Write the structure tokens for this entry.
Amino acid sequence: MLFDFTYYNPTRIHFGKDSLSQLKGELEQFGESILLVYGKNSIKKMGLYDKVIAILEESGKKVVELAGVMSNPTYEKVLEGSKLVRDNKVSLILAVGGGSVIDCAKAISVSAYCEGDAFTRYWLNFEPVNNEIVPVGSVLTMVGTGSEMNGGSVITNEEMKIKTGRVYSPDVYPKFSILNPEYTYSVPQYQMVSGVFDIMSHLMEQYFSGTDNNTTDYVIEGVLRSVIDNTRVAIKNPKDYEARSNIMWSATLALNTVTGLSKEQDWEVHMIEHQLGAYTDCAHGMGLAAISIPYYRYIYSYGLDKFVRFATEVWHVSAEGKTKDEIALEGLNCLESFIRECGMVTSLKELGATADMLPLIANSTVLGGGYKKLTAEEVLEILKRCY
Ligand code: NZQ
Ligand code: ZN
């Protein structure tokens, strides 16, 4: 059964090899002053910076730049960008990069005109945004987060040692996002497979909850199969357009709310990973990969039928002559083998965590949407198994 819902997603997607040609038309709706937000050096290395600047200049825009957005963007960087927005009366924040750059742009969008401390008000107290929201647009270069078509913005407050996400209303979603799969060719394999696991985790967080028979779960199974098949191809040949384009669109679908529509959701792996990220600054998807197998082995028996379905529908495990427990565990073994096959991380140690950090990471938020609501002691137990 599907719960009642209203669905609305305002982000216009331009997808494909020629999609950057749509940027000029998009820019027409905004004023003169543009804040260009990007990461360390990848967009300059791949020649995308020059192309974007040329289009901005042709469009008669005045460009202000916020460079050096780091993976796991900090609140300090958000405040730096917010000041640039106010000082230059920016009418569009154009993010060119991966999830960190787009998340940072959205954070600037809600923080620039916020009275008081935006992190406390919006990320910690979840207050509705009651100030001007500066529009955001994006050109995506690294896939995984789905930030290009959602309201998520995950920010690290280094002073508070908190990495936390907030999902904003459609007013904060990018107005447009340009998705050219060719831009992802240069993503190093470590980052690529980290992004792949992020996609898979978004799908599994939405899948492993609820017992209803609904279309959303069938969609998730299909997208997971596409990600698995196409990742195998992209690892062998990073410039395989078909594989890269399928992975790119799967990432967007995995977190543009379509695959969470009208069903219960878990998100516990993400809650633990965000806290891990605050202590280790690890690649998000790698943190998720290290946590997922111990977590799912710990909780699978509480949602046994769904884990059986995962094994047979996603991993094609044969059910013949096996108990439900055997089938479910075989499915999780397939997931673990895939993690190893792709070179994803399987332990927290590899990500720089130390034993004394585990109790601090275990203080992560417990949402309780999954098959088992964990206690802090259980989170710690799972972390020890991931260590
Ligand atoms: O800084 P540059 O030089 O650009 O290098 C980046 C960065 O080092 C590099 N890169 C990006 N595109 C490239 C490239 N290198 C070569 N060629 C390209 N085309 O990749 C590295 C990682 O980039 P980053 O943006 O940090 O990765 P990702 O897209 O995985 O974003 C991670 C952040 O998003 C948050 C995560 O927690 C993390 O902070 N998330 C955001 C979500 C959302 N908005 O809905 C949901 C997710 O669950 C996630 O929590
Ligand atoms: Zn994620």
Notes: The first helix runs from residue 23 to 27.
